[in-house]
């Protein structure tokens, strides 16, 4: 009897992650009867100045040397979180698509390896509307890729990017982000559902307001019984300075002061509640745990 390609991929999805190819499906953790998996969308290539410029340079350099991080060029991973509980198949963000950077936009291959077709996705939930999180929404014909999905986004995030003045106030370097976000949001205008912080948006999934990186950035606590994880998007945007000096401003955040306050509060919550996290730009697949050392923190990927 011949085995179809789809059946083969579905069979692979049932195997332990270590038994599968690891280029795209990076890490996973059980949450009750569900599973949280990170799927690679590739990586970005960014000038270090994009993050490091507002930081105290004399203190920064020793930290980067300690972390083994280049000051000149950064290549952060892009990890899209996928949660399956037997009823819902939920994507948190959709990656870059083909129009942002050539090193990103690989989500389709990763989902295929995980045995998930675009039409299988029941919900797409956005942390925020930066290009590497939302530009993968549309196909080559400008139609939504995930044809059966319910699209969900925080009301404040939607209102910010929908506002026609945003493109004029966001700054020249980010103007293309505003244009691209608005174009993609227009494609789901008639079907999108809105939510606010501290709202259970789906069974076992709680929205957590984490503004600063963007005005309406959201994280999501996924909980089943005693097991829980926090999908943090870009609220903690890297594995080095964001943990070592979380109060420092980052050039990647649209409101650096608010983002730093959010980051500190989020880290305190993660430690206090012993939460696993899934970070979009964290290494080792992005799923792991956090430990505190004095005023600093450290991320430990589970896949390492």
CATH level-4 homologous superfamily: Ribonuclease Z/Hydroxyacylglutathione hydrolase-like
Beta content comes to 25-35%
- Given helix and strand content, the structural type is alpha+beta
**Number of strand elements:** 16
Supply Rg. Answer: 18 Å
* SS element count, helices: 10
Largest sheet: 7 strands, mixed
- Into how many domains do the coordinates divide? 1
On the 0 to 100 scale, the average pLDDT is 92
As a percent range, the share of helical residues equals 25-40%
Q: Give the topology string: H per helix, E per strand.
A: HEEEHHEEEHEHEHHHEEEEEHHEEE
- Spatially, the strands of the biggest sheet line up as 1-2-5-6-7-8-9
Can you tell me the overall shape?
A: globular
Structure description:
Helices cover 27% and strands 27% of the residues. It has ten helices and 16 strands. It has a seven-stranded mixed beta sheet with strand order 1-2-5-6-7-8-9. The protein is globular, with a radius of gyration of 18 Å. The chain starts with a helix and ends with a strand. The N terminus is likely disordered.
What can be said about this structure in brief?
Helix content is 27%, strand content 27%. The chain contains ten helices and 16 strands.
Topology:
Layout (H helix, E strand, L loop, with lengths): L4 H9 L11 E7 L2 E10 L2 E2 L1 H4 L4 H11 L5 E2 L2 E8 L4 E4 L14 H7 L9 E3 L5 H4 L15 E5 H8 L3 H4 L5 H13 L5 E3 L4 E3 L2 E5 L8 E7 L2 E7 L7 H4 L11 H18 L2 E4 L7 E7 L2 E6 L3
Parallel strand pairs: 6-7, 7-8, 8-9, 13-14
Antiparallel strand pairs: 1-2, 2-5, 3-4, 5-6, 10-11, 11-12, 12-13, 14-15, 15-16
């Amino acid at each position: 009897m011949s085995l179809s390609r789809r059946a083969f991929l579905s069979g692979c999805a049932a195997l332990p992650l270590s038994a599968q190819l690891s280029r795209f499906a990076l890490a996973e953790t059980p949450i009750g009867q569900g599973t949280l998996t990170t799927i690679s969308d590739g990586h970005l290539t960014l000038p270090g100045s994009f993050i490091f410029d507002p930081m105290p340079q004399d203190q920064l350099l020793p930290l980067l040397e300690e972390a083994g991080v280049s000051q000149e060029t950064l290549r952060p991973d892009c990890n899209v979180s996928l949660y399956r509980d037997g009823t819902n198949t939920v994507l948190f963000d959709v990656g870059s698509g083909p129009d942002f950077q050539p090193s990103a936009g690989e989500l389709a291959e990763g989902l295929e390896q995980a045995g998930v077709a675009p039409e299988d996705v029941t919900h797409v939930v956005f942390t925020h509307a930066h290009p590497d999180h939302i530009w993968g929404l549309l196909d080559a014909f400008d139609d939504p890729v995930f044809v059966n999905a319910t699209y969900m986004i925080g009301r404040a995030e939607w209102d910010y990017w929908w506002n026609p003045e945003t493109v004029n106030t966001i700054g020249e370097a980010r103007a293309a982000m505003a244009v691209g976000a608005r174009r993609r949001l227009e494609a789901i205008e008639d079907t999108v559902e809105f939510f606010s912080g501290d709202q259970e948006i789906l069974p076992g999934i709680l929205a957590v307001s984490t503004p600063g990186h963007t005005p309406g950035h959201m994280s999501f606590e996924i909980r089943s019984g005693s097991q829980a994880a926090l999908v943090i998007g870009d609220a903690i945007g890297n594995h080095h300075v964001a943990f070592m000096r979380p109060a420092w401003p980052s050039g990647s955040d649209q409101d650096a002061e608010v983002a730093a306050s959010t980051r500190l509060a989020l880290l305190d919550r993660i430690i206090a509640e012993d939460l696993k996290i899934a970070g979009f730009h964290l290494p080792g697949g992005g799923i792991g745990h956090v430990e505190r050392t004095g005023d600093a923190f450290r991320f430990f990927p589970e896949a390492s």
